[in-house]
Amino acid sequence: MIAIGIPRSPEIELKAEGSYGSLPCWACLLLELRTVKAAVVTCGGLCPGLNSIIRGVTKCLWHEYGVREILGITAGYNGLSDPDSHPPIKLTEENVRDIHMKGGSIIKAARGGFDAEKICDNLQRLGITVLFLVGGDGTQFAGHLLYEAARKRRLDVSIVGIPKSIDNDVVLFDRTFGFETAVAKASEVIRNALVEASSCDRGVGIVKLMGRDSGFVAMHAATAADVVDLCMIPEVNVKMKDVLEHVDATLARKKYMVIAVAEGAGQEHVSTGKKDDTGHTIYGDIGVFLKDTLNKHLKPSGGRTFYIDPSYIIRSVPITPNDHIYCVRLANDAVHTAMRGYTGVCVGAMHNIVCMLPSRLIATGKKKVRPHSSSWQGCVQTCNMPAALSGLF
Amino acid sequence: MIAIGIPRSPEIELKAEGSYGSLPCWACLLLELRTVKAAVVTCGGLCPGLNSIIRGVTKCLWHEYGVREILGITAGYNGLSDPDSHPPIKLTEENVRDIHMKGGSIIKAARGGFDAEKICDNLQRLGITVLFLVGGDGTQFAGHLLYEAARKRRLDVSIVGIPKSIDNDVVLFDRTFGFETAVAKASEVIRNALVEASSCDRGVGIVKLMGRDSGFVAMHAATAADVVDLCMIPEVNVKMKDVLEHVDATLARKKYMVIAVAEGAGQEHVSTGKKDDTGHTIYGDIGVFLKDTLNKHLKPSGGRTFYIDPSYIIRSVPITPNDHIYCVRLANDAVHTAMRGYTGVCVGAMHNIVCMLPSRLIATGKKKVRPHSSSWQGCVQTCNMPAALSGLF
Amino acid sequence: MIAIGIPRSPEIELKAEGSYGSLPCWACLLLELRTVKAAVVTCGGLCPGLNSIIRGVTKCLWHEYGVREILGITAGYNGLSDPDSHPPIKLTEENVRDIHMKGGSIIKAARGGFDAEKICDNLQRLGITVLFLVGGDGTQFAGHLLYEAARKRRLDVSIVGIPKSIDNDVVLFDRTFGFETAVAKASEVIRNALVEASSCDRGVGIVKLMGRDSGFVAMHAATAADVVDLCMIPEVNVKMKDVLEHVDATLARKKYMVIAVAEGAGQEHVSTGKKDDTGHTIYGDIGVFLKDTLNKHLKPSGGRTFYIDPSYIIRSVPITPNDHIYCVRLANDAVHTAMRGYTGVCVGAMHNIVCMLPSRLIATGKKKVRPHSSSWQGCVQTCNMPAALSGLF
Amino acid sequence: MIAIGIPRSPEIELKAEGSYGSLPCWACLLLELRTVKAAVVTCGGLCPGLNSIIRGVTKCLWHEYGVREILGITAGYNGLSDPDSHPPIKLTEENVRDIHMKGGSIIKAARGGFDAEKICDNLQRLGITVLFLVGGDGTQFAGHLLYEAARKRRLDVSIVGIPKSIDNDVVLFDRTFGFETAVAKASEVIRNALVEASSCDRGVGIVKLMGRDSGFVAMHAATAADVVDLCMIPEVNVKMKDVLEHVDATLARKKYMVIAVAEGAGQEHVSTGKKDDTGHTIYGDIGVFLKDTLNKHLKPSGGRTFYIDPSYIIRSVPITPNDHIYCVRLANDAVHTAMRGYTGVCVGAMHNIVCMLPSRLIATGKKKVRPHSSSWQGCVQTCNMPAALSGLF
């Protein structure tokens, strides 16, 4: 964030910019820093970097603002709605020191549990004046509702979101934290598939990767591993006839091949037509479908598939160094944003500059791979995929 | 092998010991080194270290014996029975130089294809006088049959096996190559499961590991990761009631837990009662059974499982340094053994000294974990498992 | 490349799609693709990603343009000035297939050997019409001279540079390939230093990192490892008195500390006053100076240093997945640039869009860390460095 | 340890074997378990696995014997001689849970500080009845002296050593913990040297490895990396003339080469003739000597060296999975040994069975590589070293 130096210059006022928040501007806030009580919560599934964010937020509050009351809310929104069942953890400079070196979330991530009114009650009861929400678009939309509920009650609380999506499908911002790490691990697994496929006659390695709506992980991992012959993403519909032709051509040329497929790809072939309790479409398993289809297709000619579904292995790895730098930037800027009194906003990089945007904007959709983009066409080229699978036609 | 210096001292005779072979003793062989044509074949599924063995054999033949005609038979026994469909690759000092740094087998591993008579024909036709068989007990038994067929024809060929089993279930020898590497990778995956389980309320990570008949991989990986709370192996039958009690007790104490289960464990709970075309029992999927059972058991209390089946990821990793040293020893000693004229034998370490044994002995059974052994009881202790799951009662 | 045709050598004109270069436009070029002969050369020291670039260039030429004559010039400019002593290697789709998985350069990187006239002779003699120069600012300036010499001779050759600097000190472009990989490995080594320092009473780990003129590697690695207490870079002069005070304060607080220092930092303390044969200043060894100074300073109180100089270890690692993606983009865009007839230009990302710029611009200086930038101030904050070491005063 | 099941069967008596100890046999001990207070101390330099040992000892005491008073003595013997300056840390099941996943020693390793009488005073004062000493031959000899001093005072304390040597030079036992990990990391660094050397014309990579008196690390790492052309160890004297001839021959054949040299090798070429304060010979730096000698030798022909000294990087890595298993075995057996009342002994594996031996025996010398052993000759063969460098003549 360009304004990073500001917190050190208390004479600067932020009236105009500071108008979102329910708290006064940062200059005034300084006087009351002793009363600041902060909390951080991680919602949804695991994603690399959660501990980096938790640590970054804690460290910045501790060292830059002298805040000593920092709570790690456990079990996502559940811990805010019902802190008795899910008691928070005190976070200190000391107990977050090493956490960025391992995967997961020391405060446990969880889905569901959102209840704006109960949460407002608990924020008030616990005296929390600064709240950091780490989670996906659903979490940030809930954050927006919480911000509105808080404003209605005239609750003095800064609510700042840090969007999280291992799929990198958050709109408006450049990329999500943890995404590069997921791509790195995914590309490592793709190379496992390469070894399996190429150590066998007419072997086909298939790796199913995350990406319900957006194929960023599959696309980047395929480009990064640079040994993939077919990449399938939700944004590009393909005919199985074309897939099989490409498989045959590739096997004829190289004797083995590797496929990276996003979980949301090819739903036209595997659609379940069902929805779960919350109204979300239940996706068909494209990985298993591909495995079965190709095994059947290849059997006469002696080929076979090796199918890998590494989802949990990817989600749980420690963050990579470069990705950690991004987490630190986001965490710091989230803290600076909150401490200057902004609320109802999310932080993220736009054109590589960390900015804030109203949380409701983050929940307006999913970012998608554009089939005409140089990223996807570069991936198509890297994979030597034919025009029929390129999404251009 | 104690006798490692011997090939350099041509005056030593090896009559008594050398009596197995169809070739004369090593001393005579030296005179005919120019005519030696060697071949190496990798059978069965992938296992870390195949490339190390291929390289070790090639390098030792090349540098120590000056052999220049070395064939990599492709696709396992298929490449010996039908070299026209699966043409062999020429192996040279140059083209094996880097292969030990990556997983898989550059000459492709494959199952089936054994036909002793056709293979004898082809050995004769190709002029192969030294043959290295890398594969499991089935492969080595076939090696024994090949040795007998060759002897009947008075074929001048040394057939030396290097037993392979990622499960480490080869009888008589200390351990198989690739096993330590598999354990290392498996324990890494177990730590992924730990991250998932511990970043969630009442999370249970389940990792299914290889081990149809023997639980060595699961046992060692559980001990090595040192974060496992329950290890299940084929050699120890347990009641699901006891498993569920242990799960409840562990979750009550730690709020999360990790399970490592060998694929052949708990077959009494999942038995299919079916056999495949070759008469092998089709195993039930204990991993999925555990996942489903525990999900159902935990649902009322809010817990859930994270199930990982990393089989292909483990098989395909590059060999670890210490394991590579073992491969080099085996490869060298296999070459020395063959070049001295032994045949129908396998090499492996016994009490840490590389020895040779008749191949037919290798095929007499599977090595198993002994429930009373300090290895298993040490694993039980590491996991804090109760007596009911320890196999002692 | 979105920015097709935007930044360009002003004196050249672009007609339909590609009229700028010394070659005819791309449309025409297509007709003559069979006559295209390409070459790639890597100059200067090692940097992660060289093999990715070599592979990317080869693959793009091969698959997208059908070029089959691609030479890997060995030993940098030496191989162009004197191809008889340093014969080139033929690059094919096949022999570059795996190279991106390992560090180094398969065509060997080397310094010196530039002779514009000889090189023009050899380009002509070998029939090379497309040349890719991978190297630092010196290499690109030489590339500019070569372009001028070629133009004088009316040589039909496209000369396209891909700037390389493990220090990330190339002006104008966002970042150099290999830089993120270097940061990742450097931060791993910093964690080794942390282990040493913290497993000892009053231990101080010191890691010297690359960065003669610019502190990007040290700054990013310190931020990424997030365990560093003092980061020193060439752009920020500090007094040893302030350094020692910070060391004492940190040891008093934590009992151990970690220092990351760029090789060009603190030259005011270690200046040699000498220049080498080529007129470059010979730098004093700030790492050894810090080690000795701190050992002396700490001895009375029982402390000690652990000094690590990991330079060669960092330079030689395989590229990270995300960095490889950048290499692929650069390589592809370099090929598209060259094949459309541009020459005398370099490719690189500006605001994350790959563009081309005249090579002579690349050689006009070194990019530096700005002490007031949020990157450096964020690093200062991450390290908890006092104002006196922050470069702000 | 074969006797692993014993602690669970209190009816077994251990009279004869149990006679060393000052404590009665284990059966009686059980009655007094509540009064057991244990301590563990790590002496000397860092070595992978210290945290595994600390954790293993703590976990076994906690779960198998119900001991709840476990101290981590800080700063080696200093913390026993002067616990006021180096206060111990309480170890619990909880605070050792993750420590085996990172390098170093959470209780800090340190040299010196041994004073048998002061230590006996402090053991008495702190009520420590079980003491685990992790350290090299010097530490274990001090342990023997401490045992004698304690016996003289009739102090009820079990003193059990776990020998530590990253060089693997402990006599009598098969191998030391941490050694395999050191070999693994060393072989990784050797591959860095390979990349440097082979990406340059006539490049020579030199890696200096630990091994003052014994070349096990260099020998095993050279065999494991399997890309080394020359390995030099203290046990084999070589003439520089022969070294240079081998360098020339290797460069002529391959154009690059890699050297692994133990720090204690070739002292005849670099001897300082000096001794330090404690009477130990100060070794000359063979790594720098080789670098300088080869640079000079190669300059005329255009070659150069790349010298890497990775000592601290190797010492500080986390333990490998297989090595951790060994640590767990040692820790468990050390605890069982101590709890059964043995004292003045060390534990370690002999022919792969964990045994105990009187500590004074451990201090009687250093284990060395035998030049005629198959390990060294296998290494010579792997490196393609000529007879003159093989140690056989």
Automatic annotation (TrEMBL), chains A, B, C, D:
Asked if the keyword Transferase belongs to this entry, the reply reads yes
Q: Does the keyword Metal-binding apply?
A: yes
- What GO annotations for molecular function exist for this entry? 6-phosphofructokinase activity; ATP binding; metal ion binding
SUPFAM superfamilies linked: Phosphofructokinase
Instruction: Enumerate the cofactors the protein uses.
Output: Mg(2+)
UniProt superkingdom: Eukaryota
- Recorded catalytic activity of this chain's protein: beta-D-fructose 6-phosphate + ATP = beta-D-fructose 1,6-bisphosphate + ADP + H(+)
One Pfam family linked to the record: PFK
In terms of Gene3D superfamilies, this protein maps to:
3.40.50.450
Which terms does the UniProt entry file under GO BP? fructose 6-phosphate metabolic process
Q: Where is the Phosphofructokinase domain?
A: 38-336
One GO cellular component term of this record is: cytoplasm
InterPro entries of this UniProt entry?
A: ATP_PFK (IPR022953), PFKA (IPR050929), Phosphofructokinase_dom (IPR000023), PKF_sf (IPR035966), PyroP-dep_PFK_TP0108 (IPR012004)
Q: Which UniProt keywords apply?
A: ATP-binding, Glycolysis, Kinase, Magnesium, Metal-binding, Nucleotide-binding, Transferase
What name appears for this protein in its UniProt entry? PfkA protein
Species of the source:
Symbiodinium natans
